[in-house]
Design goal:
Oligomer: single chain
Strand order of the largest sheet: 3-5-6-8-10-11-12
Bound molecules: alpha-D-psicofuranose, manganese (II) ion
Radius of gyration: 22 Å
Strand content: 5-15%
Distance between the termini: 33 Å
Number of strands: 12
Largest sheet: 7 strands, parallel
Structural class: alpha/beta
Length: 430
């Protein structure tokens, strides 16, 4: 495919690195075999794992203060899909994209679906946007959307979500993710109970528009843009809403949307328990909703989340079918590099969690062997699974070293020539 990086370049770089890679994979194979583990089984599971890329992630993001555009930024959804295709071509873990509307609106969605298919991509959950006003929009979302005091604003927000479902049907999506910016900046600004009622009322109308085989993902967030209270602030509110709406509704966990030091893996465990874990928006943070790259600040936390996921899969937890996605804002890096790196970090956490000896862990827990149990987790976390990840990529025609290959390819320089900077163009989250 001419829009991608030439396969010959990948094959050539892989060939140069093959001897060292085989050596490292062999060493890990022998190490795992000594512990009774079969590297081939783990490599196969790793190769089957996928995480979606958000279309907005390939644009350069920003902070509340500024956005510093990068060279060769995507100008529209077609450019974004080109970049998403490269992320998947090299790292081979992101075969789906999650679009956001109206940002990714086009006139012909069958053309868009075809464009994605030609690049080896398909579409994941569609995302609605009622946290921003668009040019020419009838009603403003300044004071809320699905929970706005004015029924006409609520109706407009509901209609937008229903339109997203219609677009998603044309793209082959099977889920709608709803995150609202609704809430209050001042105590007294809104009636906390009434706001939740309005949310349920509006969401029920969106829920009623879901096709039989679709799911509704409710995304909670503690704060921002509302700083006193958000309507769907936490997993408790999200779960109450999902349970009120019906079985197709479940709770999405964005790792940055919690109070500092909250035990996210325990929230994950609880949501799995009630069959309402929708999935994830992976990113990392040190202070709040920093939207930093997955695994860049606290890889152990990411591992502990995957430890719960692997545990749930191992015991066939009913209704367990999480959707995985990255949701990050790239302010100082090339978004393609960040997305590849993050996808690999997510896969790494999965592989490390697969290595945990669950039978031994159960025994240590039963015997109150706290340190022994902890050491079993650490044994998985501390294993360098890089050769497994590389081998899984190689088997899928990806790059042994995706970021080096990308740098060597000159893709960004080529796109910088093809996509001249447009003054005032906005791509990515500010
Ligand atoms: C909100 O902070 C969020 O995490 C939601 O997923 C949005 O749709 C996304 O970021 C993009 O703004
Ligand atoms: Mn998110």
């Amino acid at each position: 495919m001419s829009h991608l990086i030439p396969d010959a370049l990948i094959a050539e770089a892989n060939a140069k690195a093959q001897n060292a890679h085989e050596d490292e994979y062999g060493a890990l194979q022998r190490k795992l075999a000594r512990a009774g583990q079969d590297i081939e089984a783990i490599t196969a599971e790793v190769a089957a794992f996928a995480v979606a890329v958000p279309t907005w992630g390939v644009g350069t993001g920003g902070t509340r203060f500024a956005r510093f555009p990068g060279p060769g930024e995507p100008r529209d959804i077609f450019d974004k899909l080109d970049d998403c295709a490269v992320v998947n071509q090299l790292a081979r873990a992101t075969p789906t994209c999650s679009p956001h509307f109206p940002w990714d609106k086009v006139s012909d969605y069958s053309e868009l679906a075809q464009f994605a298919r030609a690049r080896g991509l398909s579409f994941d959950a569609v995302n609605s946007n009622t946290f921003q006003d668009q040019l020419g929009q009838t009603h403003s979302y300044k004071f809320g959307s699905l929970t706005h005091a004015d029924a006409a604003v609520r109706a407009q927000a509901i209609a937008h979500n229903l339109e997203c479902i219609e677009i998603g049907k044309k793209l082959g999506s099977k889920a709608l993710t709803v995150w609202i910016g609704d809430g209050a900046n001042f105590s007294g600004q809104s009636n906390l109970n009434r706001a939740f009622d309005l949310y349920l009322e509006a969401s029920a109308q969106i829920y009623a528009g879901l096709p039989a085989d679709w799911r509704l993902f409710l995304e909670h967030k503690l704060y921002e843009p509302a700083f006193y209270s958000t309507v769907i602030s936490d997993w408790g509110s999200s779960l109450m809403a999902a349970q009120a709406l019906g079985p197709k509704a479940s709770c999405l966990v964005d790792l940055g949307h919690h109070a500092p030091n909250v035990n996210i893996e325990q929230i994950v465990s609880r949501l799995i328990r009630v069959g309402r874990l929708a999935g994830f928006h992976f990113n990392d943070s040190k202070y709040g909703d920093d939207d930093l790259d997955a695994g860049s600040i606290d890889p152990f936390r990411l591992f502990l989340v995957f430890n719960e996921l692997v545990d749930a899969a191992a015991r066939n937890a009913p209704g367990f079918n999480p959707a995985y996605m990255l949701d990050q804002s790239h302010n100082v890096t090339d978004p393609i590099e960040s997305l590849m790196q993050s996808a690999m970090e997510v896969v790494r956490a999965y592989a490390q969690a697969l290595l945990v000896d669950r039978a031994a862990l159960g025994l240590a827990q039963a015997q109150n062997d706290a340190l022994g149990a902890h050491r079993l987790l650490k044994a998985g976390f501390l294993t360098d699974v890089s050769p497994i990840l590389a081998e899984a990529r190689r088997r899928k025609r990806g790059a042994l070293d995706p970021i080096s290959l990308y740098r060597q390819s000159g893709y960004r320089a080529q796109k910088t020539r093809e996509r001249p900077a447009v003054l005032g163009a906005v791509s990515g989250i500010v």
